[in-house]
Amino acid sequence: MSGGESRGYAGGNVVDVKPKGPWGAVELALRYSELNLDDGVNLGGREHDVTFGANWYINRYLKLQGNYVHADSTRRDVMVDPNVVEFRAQVMF
Asked: Can you tell me the distance from the alpha carbon of 75 to that of 43, in angstroms, rounded to the nearest whole number?
C-alpha cells in the first residue's frame, strides 16, 4: 500500500483496507494465470493471461479499481489474443 497500510486476515478472509492518509491508499497488483481445458477427446483449449491492476481506496467506504488483461488462448489451432480493460467502483458499508 502507498501509505503504509496493510491487509489484515480474520476468519479465513482478508480484512478491508482502512486508508491512513488524506488521499487514501493505492494498491498495485500483478497476476499470471493458466487454464487448460484439453482432456482426452475434449479439446476446450488453453489460455495464459497476465493481469495488471490498481486499486485506489479513497476512504474506508469507496474503492476504484482498474485492470488490464492480456490473454493468449488457443483452441483447435485457432489463436485468440484479446486485450481487456476493466474499471469498477465499489461502495462498501
From this structure: 7
